[in-house]
Each structure stands twice: as structure tokens, then as C-alpha cells.
Amino acid sequence: MVDSLKKPKSEEMRPGVKSPAAETILTPRFYTTDFEEMAEMDISVNEEELRAILEEFRVDYNRHHFVRDEEFNRSWDNIDGETRKLFVEFLERSCTAEFSGFLLYKELGRRLKGKNPLLAEIFNLMSRDEARHAGFLNKALSDFNLTLDLSFLTKSRKYTFFKPKFIFYATYLSEKIGYWRYITIYRHLEQHPEDRIYPIFRFFENWCQDENRHGDFFDAIMRAQPQFLNDWKARLWCRFFLLSVFATMYLNDIQRSGFYASIGLDAREYDKEVIEKTNDTAGRVFPIILDVQHPEFYSRLETCIENNDKLRAIDNSSSPKPIKLLRKLPGYVSNGWQFLKLYLIKPISVENLAGTVR
């Protein structure tokens, strides 16, 4: 392999095994929750729909989908330089996110067994799906002479504790935004096959249906717990999680706009479409959605992007750590202020949208 394609040794824990990306506020997180509270939930209000969802998971529509074909059996040295770096990062972040879902769902399936067998089986079947996704992505990384040590990730990552209702908000949005991300890329590349630089994108149509079914489950479980949706606190929390998920995606993707350019997409336009579709979808269960058409919505996110560029430049400078921290403070304060102002943009009540075509 030519020198320009070799990976710096610092990126590898050992030959061929990639060092996990440093944990930041924008990296995929691992979650844990109150398993006893989850097990004791009364789901009788919506049990019929949940049983129908279980039957759909049992069918396992994608059991034969994640099989690599001959198109993978070639060298990918033509993807080089910055594009290669960004593509490997995309695979790593996606694999880490899918593996995070696997760990959470697997543990929920284990802890709920014998206490809430319906939910336990659903979580086990969703963990099956996420394991396939993570394994398929990790195998794709091996085409670039790297893999992730997933067992090391299990032990080394910090776990964020969320109460069950926050797990539901976060995972529902994660699954639904995952659907819109995958299907938007798939539809673009279906129209522009010349931009499909790697065969994994051919799998996105069926793949995103797993994400959609997972999101539908969390939709159903939240409607089985109406207290998670129907009071003033729920409105505030739904607003917070919508903004957090949208802002995190936007800041991450614009930082990696070169990856999207390599497959023929403008990162900003792509993210705006995904945010709009996810926001609209969330209105089917959340009591409010965000006003993403507000003139300040994206302008404040762009200010955060400018701040983050400055923060990275400070990180890469030769200043001592205490000086770096002092220089970073204005950027941190500005980002916090932008997020607060975004949160205070008046949301759209779903009740006001009743009867409209959405």
C-alpha cells in the first residue's frame, strides 16, 4: 500500500484494530437506565399494538439482507486522502452508535425477562438487529484495514444514566432520525449511482426499515405511558431532546461535510431535509415539535459551528492547557447561549396541526 494510504500508528490500538475515537459531547453515547422501573411499567393501555410489533420483529424481514456480495471483493485504495479518513470516521461512528443500541437493548432484554416478557422479547429482537448493523459496519471497516474492538468499547466507554422516559425520548428520536438519514442517502444514490463510492449504501433501503420499526416500538411504548407525553414537563423534555438530537447531528455533519460531498450531497441541505422529516415524524407522538423554519434556527447553529472551529484551532495550538481553557471559555459560553436561545424559540403545538396534511 502506498504511503498516502497508510494509517498513522497512533490511530491503532494494535495492528488492524482502531483506537476508539475520543469521547466528546458530540460522540455516540452508551446508555443505562432504571431496569426495575422499566420492568414494572403497565403497558396494558397499548398492549395490542405492542404485540403486533412483536410479531413483526419475529418475522425478521432482514434476516438474509446483511450478506456481503462480490462487489465488496476488491481493493478500496481508490478512496484515499481526506475522503478515506472521513469515510472511516463515518463507519466508526455508525458502528459505535449501532453497538450502543445493541448493548442497551440486550441488557433490557436480560433484565426484563421473567418480569415483563413481552418487552423483554422485543428488546432482545431489537438487539439482534443492532448487532447485525454493527457487525456489518465493522466488517466494512476491515475493507480499510481497520476494525473496532467492540468488547473493549463495552468495558471502556462511560455509560450515561437516563430514566426510562428519557431513554424513550432519546432512542425514539435516534431510530427515527437514523431512518431518515439512511433513506435520504439511499434515494440520492439511487438517482445518482455514479456517487455510490462503496457498496454499503446499496443496503440502506432495507436497513432503514429496521430503524423505522424500532422507532415505531418506542412510539407505541410512549403511548402506553401517557404520563410521558401529556403534561407540561413532557413538553419541555420533548423540546430539549428534539433540539439536542438535531443540533448534535448538524454540528457533526457540517464538520464532516467532505464526506457528504464525496457522495454528491451538500451536508447542510442534507441535514435540513433530515431534520425537517424527523421533526414532522416526531409530531405523531410528541406533543410539540420545533419551529425549524424559524429564521434564527440555523443561523444560531452556524454560530456554534464557527465557535467549534475556533475551539479546535485552540486545541491544536501550542498554548499550555490552562491558557487553552481560558481561550476556550468565550466559545463555550457562546455555544451555551446559542442553545438556550434555540430552546426558547416557541415550539409548534401538535394540537394546532390537527387536521392539516403533514
Features:
single chain, 358 residues, two-stranded parallel ribbon, globular
Note down, in words, how this protein is organized:
The protein has 358 residues and is mainly alpha-helical. 62% of the residues lie in helices and 5% in strands. The chain has twelve helices and seven strands. It has helices at 35-39, 47-59, 81-112, 117-142, 150-156, 164-191, 204-223, 232-255, 257-262, 267-282, 295-315, 321-343; strands at 12-14, 17-18, 30-32, 147-148, 159-161, 288-289, 348-349. The strands form three sheets. The chain has a three-stranded mixed β-sheet with strand order 1-2-4. Strand 1 (12-14) and strand 2 form a beta hairpin. Helix 6 (164-191) packs across helix 8 and helix 11 runs antiparallel to helix 12. It is globular. The termini are far apart.
What is the rounded Rg?
Answer: 21 Å
Order of helices and strands: EEEHHHHEHEHHHHHEHHE
Low-confidence stretches: 1-10
Overall pLDDT level: 90
Which strand order do you get reading across the main beta sheet?
Answer: 1-2-4
Output the structural class: mainly alpha
Terminal CA distance = 52 Å
Short characterization:
The protein has about 350 residues and is mainly alpha-helical. It is built from 12 helices and 7 strands.
List the helices and strands and how they pair.
Elements: E1 12-14, E2 17-18, E3 30-32, H1 35-39, H2 47-59, H3 81-112, H4 117-142, E4 147-148, H5 150-156, E5 159-161, H6 164-191, H7 204-223, H8 232-255, H9 257-262, H10 267-282, E6 288-289, H11 295-315, H12 321-343, E7 348-349
Parallel strand pairs: 2-4, 3-5
Antiparallel strand pairs: 1-2, 6-7
Helix pairs in contact: 2-4, 2-7, 3-4, 6-7, 6-8, 6-10, 8-10, 8-11, 11-12
